[in-house]
Amino acid sequence: MVSSRRRTTRKIYTGSRRRFLFPVSFLLLSFLLMILPLEGVVSSVKAVLSYVFIPQVRLAHGGVKYAQGVHQTVQELLNAHQENRRLKQQIEMDHLLTAQAETVFKENERLTEMLDLAPVSPWQGIWAKVAYREPSQWNTVIIDKGSADGVEERSAVLSVEQGQEGLAGVVVEVTENTSKVLLVRDEDFTAAVTLEKGQEEGLLIGGGTNAVRIKYIPLQAQVSKGDKVFTSSTSSIFPAGILVGKVRAVREDSSFQTAQTIEVDPLVRSAAVKELFVILKQEEQTPYVEDL
Amino acid sequence: MWKICKLMALFIVATVCHWGFATLFSYVGLSVNFMLVFAMAFCAVARLEIGYPVAFMCGLFLDFFGSKLFGNNAFSFTWVACVVYALRERIDFASILPQVVTVFFLTCAVGVVNSLLLMRFTSSSFWPGTVSLLGGAVVGALLAPIVFAVVRFVWVDLSADEHL
Predict the structure, then answer these.
(1) pTM (2 decimals)?
(2) Which chain A residues touch B136 with a CB distance below 8 Å?
């Protein structure tokens, strides 16, 4: 009788000890992970995991595409006839435009040669799909193209929104089959930009949840709401002339400031990014690169 | 061995679903955390000796795919497991309403705690937005009955058949 009571007491004691020890030990461990400098180890494990989980990322992405595709396919079938007629007209127009563009291109080449100017190289790159987004952090996405496709770190990334190509971000991590892209809104993102009017240069800085800003614009620069912002020719990462967004507001200057700060609405919205165009370095083009 | 296989299968399916739902709902501006729903469902049916490590590993798994802070999801998932085990003694997680309510409130709480941890340890804020967080929590809560049922079936019912 006494021994069975002892056993029961011991069981209860062990159970409550476990109930206390398990959460405390795991909470302590996770807290240590947060405070310890583990960049090296974490990066290695990340690299291994990204290889291991590629099939799952692709499967998930395929599932999502299929789920979206059902609704779209039905819609497309309903509109197919009208769209076909419109596209035929557009193709005829495109033929005309191509002929005109070829003439202009040749003329430009001739003039560039006469004026001894450095020719502007066309953007060449590869289309990639967004394969993963973190639920709580949308300013970073993982795309389904990696070093095997010619993607390198610090490659510029574009996207098409509202029928216009715009700056989407920059590649910050590359594995063989995937890459991590830091989008324009991320607070770690920076780019040299110019304003449409006046050609003043400034530094674009992502704002995280706050507004994207351009710093170091001279006080005398005339900036108004709606002005377009393009990437600057002084940027070492981004080709010049890519649309970044439009001026949303010009901050009131305090008397001690020597430059204006401008708030910008990026053309490419982080939540809407689905396909991205990664600009590849010219000398390392893969055989299947596409033109934007 | 059979249990380990089942756990592995559940985990792999959960990661696929997590990626799928995170990508699908981010297009409409919602932040869905499927792994969290899975961790809660698992803790609702498994013993704490298995539930805590699984919840911790689910969080750690998300941490490996994060870019700013390492360990915040592991921390959040562990205290979520703690809450689920505490609630399990008072609430019957076999019925749908407790599942939905628990998942909704804990998802919101995890969003807040993650933002606070990021603010504290990285001096930056990653608030996904109130609408996005609440919307994601609603989607998670709506998915909860299915996830709880699947996890219960695979982890409890299949094992029960095994003992027959």
Answers:
(1) 0.55
(2) 135
